[in-house]
Design the sequence.
């Protein structure tokens, strides 16, 4: 018989064949030709004689172990060949002969790993258990083989059940302890790990977990792992212990009466049925058998799943859906394009005067210097377009008080006279807007923060409509933020922090304080505790629980009308001691991974620091770590099929002053009032001779707040026909930001864009002459105001509503889309559309765009280039940004159209409005892994040079202004433009001095504070200069090529 011959041929002499390179292929070939069966037959034959023929058996067993490992049906084949008993009895007969025994155990292991189910019934476990107990360092190879075989067997749930019933779990725990204590020099890590794997498999079943807890498993493993934390070699052990501890730790619901947001908002006219309310908190699942252990160190888990999500239906990709509303409705948007019907005949004569009034010294008196008619009309229009607070119904605006200041600050005594101390005391009813505190503070404020005015802020904040009816102003938003003179590198991750944090979190709370000290609806805490507060614009903290003397568990509030989307936090903390590291655990995070594990820090603002002249949000926190915790959300409450997991963000903070008032946030806050007061300042500071600026209201939000719409372009050069025609015919650029309220980085980028657009920079001047900008700086004001992370008041993700928005539920989206429809209907669809976002999982700044070809190609579809012709113009802008914007990285961009994104602004505007350059621009919350901001240097020679910079507001704003520069270059590259524009551009972008200045400025800005070595400086400068030169060269080549 062929098989038998083959087997005989294979054994002994040609055994070496299978251990040489190329083995894998040969073995697979052999398996396909019935090799496993033949070997098993040979084994049965060789095992029959008494005593067995060991000279054949040993190589045969070795071969079987080898081949079986690669044969997925090996277990079945063993069963079929009735070889199970043969192997087991061979092992039993050789209990005293360790070489033979070990060989048998290897084969048993591959049987168990590859589907031999009957081993458990046949007494294999008893045999293996006998081999490994009691603890002994003799015959370690045999012990190892037995433990590995046992671990393989225990993967089967019925075997695990059997093992528990026979009392093996306790035995395994004791054995693990013995190995742990005796393996002082860590020579037997694989044995310890093997035992842990046995425990890990057994605890996959409920019975196993209960028995584990009953056998003091938590304490035993927890104590043992404490000795391992300092040693890097022991990572596999620490990881496995952590997995077991986490799995066995009793699951609990969050310490909340209901996970649903503490705020609810009645939707208009029953527009949508309420989502089913969560069940009682007792019904959380004790959770399915196994939990997926996602690899935390794989940053790209997301991208693996993306390919399945690609839209591959060419017809869907190319179709243009019909209008989602009656066509006559579009007429209402005509009034949102006042620039198209503006009559410039009243334009003043002295338009050439240069505007040189410094920003902060702007007064009404100076304003009068301008042409009276023009100013009057401006004011009249502004009043009509952008209702400001003063004109509103006084009843609608409410009294706001600044949060109480630190009590003992020295400046405080100097600043306030004794009789008005009441106004500083939180309990003395000092909630008077005219309080001395506010007045004195306003007098003290240096007004030296560009584009920020506390007065304007207060005025705007008074008009905000919030669900909780905020009565307090957070100090940082009122006082303002000035970026620090340096950027901070990403935190370097210390070895073992994750494991240490994770395992220590699994201990029972050491001290039974567990006092509830803050609840968004209750009173302040006990003496000696920190005091928390977050009932102010964009604030989000639901509950704080003191778990140890200096440690607090914090719970974020869910988005309004929802029970999820916890990520954004912003709260005040006071009554701290000096030099104490406080530990905070935010215990209801939802994302399975976070940049907090890759160098990102949160931000902190100290009121004392601010009053001493350093008003700034700073990156803060150390020993930061993010991991899955033991809290679960019941399936009903989580709105999903299975109970949802929660994650903990944990960090330590040392506050800079005693008894300070500090604010902590997920990222640099940027409230709705900040945005509105910023627009007020921009409006007042622009040069109306040069900048055409209209602020209108796109619509009112569900919460009754106004969503502003801006139009920015250059005033026409003159009243002459040509110039007016040029004005009316400028292509449109449509920009939006902050549809997701937790993405405050998007607002800082938008701030940079707006400031550049109205600035007197000659590039801005030229850019304004090239485009009409339509800008919605904050698409989700209600979400931002109420401290949401993702949604609007309806509980919807507004960036998933673009296909069919409704005017009742998603007014801002409905009208933004309406305006875009209108532009398309008059043949003026924008040249560029960009929606600013923030990305929590990736580094750098990048865009998502839309390309049919790239989508099909990525999905592995055939692309018929004759059928699909596509303009690759969508790539130009990101390519330019890669060169001009230090934080922007082309390689991070993607141009794929995903099914799950079909209702986002980017895809809808691309498909329905036919906008080729339709983008989502994502800014990281963290920092840069490429480009100029990647290289940092430290004075400490030991410190790494590889950590990139964390982005600050300065870098985000710079991104916004560089985006504008990119638009200008795009215009020069892609559109026919007049000789005049080209000449101006050449003059601006080609002036070497100017460029050097600019470059140096930007580099100095980026690297201020680093007392870096000259060579480094030169390197960085050179790098940036090269970039510039490159752009210049391109522009110049283009310049000569046209007209
Ligand atoms: Zn977003």
Sequence:
């Amino acid at each position: 018989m062929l098989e038998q011959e083959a087997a005989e041929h294979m054994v002994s002499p040609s055994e070496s064949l299978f251990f040489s390179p190329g083995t894998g292929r040969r073995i697979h070939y052999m398996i396909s030709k019935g090799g496993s069966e033949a070997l098993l037959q040979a084994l049965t034959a060789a095992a029959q004689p008494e005593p067995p023929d060991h000279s054949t058996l040993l190589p045969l067993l070795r071969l079987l172990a080898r081949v079986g490992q690669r044969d997925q049906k090996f277990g079945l084949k063993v069963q079929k060949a009735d070889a199970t008993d043969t192997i087991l009895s061979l092992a039993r007969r050789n209990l005293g002969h360790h070489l033979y025994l070990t060989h048998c155990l290897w084969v048993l292991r591959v049987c168990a790993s590859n589907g031999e189910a009957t081993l458990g019934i046949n007494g294999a476990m008893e045999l293996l258990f006998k081999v490994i107990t009691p603890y002994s360092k003799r015959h370690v190879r045999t012990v190892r083989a037995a433990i590995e075989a046992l671990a393989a067997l225990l993967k089967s749930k019925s075997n695990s059940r059997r093992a528990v019933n026979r009392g093996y779990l306790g035995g395994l725990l004791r054995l693990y302890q013995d190995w742990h204590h005796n393996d002082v020099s860590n020579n037997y890590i694989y044995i310890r790990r093997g035992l842990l794997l046995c425990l890990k498999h057994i605890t996959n079943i409920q019975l196993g977990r209960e028995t584990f807890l009953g056998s003091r498993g938590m304490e035993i493993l927890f104590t043992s792992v404490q000795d391992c934390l300092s040693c890097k070699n022991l990572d596999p052990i620490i990881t496995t212990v952590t997995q077991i501890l986490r799995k066995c730790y009793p699951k609990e619901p969050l310490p909340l009466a209901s996970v649903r947001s503490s705020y609810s908002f009645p939707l208009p006219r029953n527009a949508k049925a309420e989502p089913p309310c969560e069940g009682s908190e007792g019904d959380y699942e004790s959770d399915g058998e196994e939990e997926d252990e996602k690899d935390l160190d794989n940053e790209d888990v997301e991208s693996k799943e993306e390919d399945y999500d690609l839209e591959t239906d060419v017809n869907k990709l190319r179709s243009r859906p019909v209008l989602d509303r009656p066509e006559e409705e579009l007429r209402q948007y005509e009034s949102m394009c006042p620039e198209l019907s503006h009559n410039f005949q009243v334009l003043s004569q002295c338009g050439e005067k240069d505007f040189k009034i410094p920003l902060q010294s702007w007064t009404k008196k100076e304003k009068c210097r301008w042409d009276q008619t023009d100013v009057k009309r401006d004011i009249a229009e502004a009043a009509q377009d952008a209702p400001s607070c003063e004109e509103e119904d006084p009843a609608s605006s409410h009294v706001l008080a600044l949060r109480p200041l630190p009590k003992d600050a020295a400046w405080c005594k100097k600043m306030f006279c004794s009789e008005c101390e009441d106004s500083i005391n939180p309990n003395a009813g000092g909630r008077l807007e005219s309080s001395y505190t506010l007045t004195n503070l306003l007098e003290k404020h240096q007004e030296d923060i560009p584009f920020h005015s506390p007065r304007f802020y207060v005025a705007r904040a008074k008009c905000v409509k919030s669900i909780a009816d905020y009565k307090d102003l957070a100090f940082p938003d009122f006082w303002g933020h000035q970026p620090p003179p340096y950027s901070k590198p990403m935190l370097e991750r210390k070895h073992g922090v994750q494991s240490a944090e994770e395992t220590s979190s699994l201990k029972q709370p050491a001290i039974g304080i567990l006092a509830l000290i803050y609840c968004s609806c209750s009173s302040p805490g006990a003496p000696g505790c920190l005091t928390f507060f977050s009932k102010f614009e964009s604030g989000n903290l639901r509950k704080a629980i003191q778990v140890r003397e200096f440690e607090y568990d914090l719970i974020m509030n869910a988005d309004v009308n929802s029970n999820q989307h916890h990520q954004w936090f912003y709260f005040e903390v006071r009554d701290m001691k000096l030099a104490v590291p406080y530990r905070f655990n935010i215990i209801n995070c939802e994302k399975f991974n976070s940049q907090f594990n890759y160098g990102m820090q949160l931000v902190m603002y100290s009121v004392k620091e601010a009053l001493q002249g350093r008003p700034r949000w700073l990156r803060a926190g150390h020993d930061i770590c993010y991991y899955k915790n033991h809290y679960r959300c019941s399936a009903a409450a989580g709105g999903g099929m299975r109970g949802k997991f929660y994650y903990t963000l944990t960090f330590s903070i040392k506050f800079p002053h005693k008894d300070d008032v500090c604010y902590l946030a997920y990222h640099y806050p940027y409230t709705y009032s900040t945005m509105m007061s910023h627009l007020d300042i921009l409006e007042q500071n622009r040069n109306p001779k040069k900048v055409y600026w209209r602020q209108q209201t796109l619509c009112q939000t569900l919460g009754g707040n106004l969503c502003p719409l801006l139009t920015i372009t250059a005033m026409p050069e003159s009243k002459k026909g040509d110039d007016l025609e040029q004005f009316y015919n400028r292509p449109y650029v449509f920009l939006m930001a902050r549809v997701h309220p937790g993405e405050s980085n998007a607002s800082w980028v938008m701030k940079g864009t707006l400031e550049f657009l109205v600035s007197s920079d000659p590039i801005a001047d030229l850019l304004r002459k090239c485009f009409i900008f339509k800008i919605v700086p904050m698409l989700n004001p209600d979400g931002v105001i109420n401290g949401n992370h993702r949604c609007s008041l309806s509980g919807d993700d507004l960036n998933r509503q673009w296909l069919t928005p409704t005017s009742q539920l998603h007014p801002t989206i409905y009208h933004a889309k309406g305006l875009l429809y209108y532009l398309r209907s008059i043949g003026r669809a924008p040249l560029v559309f960009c929606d600013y976002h923030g990305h929590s999982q990736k580094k750098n700044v990048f865009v998502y765009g839309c390309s049919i070809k790239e989508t099909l190609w990525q999905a592995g579809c055939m692309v018929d280039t004759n059928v699909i012709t596509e303009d690759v113009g969508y790539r130009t802008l990101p390519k330019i940004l890669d060169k001009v914007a230090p934080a922007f990285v082309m390689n991070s961009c993607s141009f794929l159209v995903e099914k799950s994104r079909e209702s986002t602004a980017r895809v809808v505007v691309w498909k329905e409005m036919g906008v080729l350059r339709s983008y989502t621009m994502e800014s990281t919350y963290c920092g840069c892994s490429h480009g100029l901001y990647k290289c940092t240097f430290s004075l400490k020679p030991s410190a790494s040079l590889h950590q990139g910079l964390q982005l600050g507001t300065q870098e985000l704003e710079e991104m916004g202004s560089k985006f504008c520069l990119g638009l200008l270059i795009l215009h020069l590259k892609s559109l026919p433009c007049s000789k005049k524009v080209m000449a101006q551009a050449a003059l601006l972008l080609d002036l070497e001095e100017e460029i050097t200045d600019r470059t140096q400025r930007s580099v100095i800005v980026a690297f201020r504070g680093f007392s870096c070595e000259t060579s480094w400086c030169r390197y960085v400068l050179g790098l940036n200069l090269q970039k510039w030169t490159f752009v210049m060269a391109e522009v110049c080549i283009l310049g000569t090529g046209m007209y």
In short: The pocket of zinc ion is lined by residues 740, 743, 837 (CB under 6 Å). The domain at 1-155 is CATH 1.25.10.10 (Leucine-rich Repeat Variant). The chain has a mean pLDDT of 80.
